[in-house]
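Chapter review. Work through the record for Spore gernimation protein before attempting the end-of-chapter questions.
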Amino acid sequence: MMWEANMLKKFAVICTLMLCVLVAGCSDDQTATVIPQPETKQTQNNKNQEITVTVYRAPVNGEEYLLPEKVTRKSGAMTAPEIALDILVNSSPQDTAKMVSLFPKGTKIRTMKIEDGTAYVDFSKEITNVPQGSYTELMLTTAIVNTLTEFPEIKKVQILVDGKKIASLKGHTDILDPLERNTTLLKK
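Structure tokens for Spore gernimation protein:
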């Protein structure tokens, strides 16, 4: 009899706790708490997933067009646009006989965020060390924009330097406002 009374009390406590959880879950408060989940094999596999992106590079011969380069890399914790930008800024072309990277030494990607179809890319001040000349500045800015607008969620690109909008990198290409894809510089 005593055993049954203890079991009945435990059952009542459990039912009360469940009722509290149920009532709390049905309240008008719409805030949600996200509890980080431990990494599973699935999330680890996504980090090891290979992704292929297209980046645009200038030709070695100095002609005024951009060449597409497909590059495959493990995704890690980066999004596809972040991977493409990282490859564009921090790696040499696969075919150095045909393509060249125009990024000045020491250029860093400080941040990148996408809002309402515009990618805001903040570079370190070293990007302004681009060699003097309208060709290099045009090709560099267009390579950034065309690489990022390969992704459907990005329609425009705002280039920032040390967190600020600037008129141009060296006085030739206006980057004060977001730039759209330039298909006239893509080799046909």
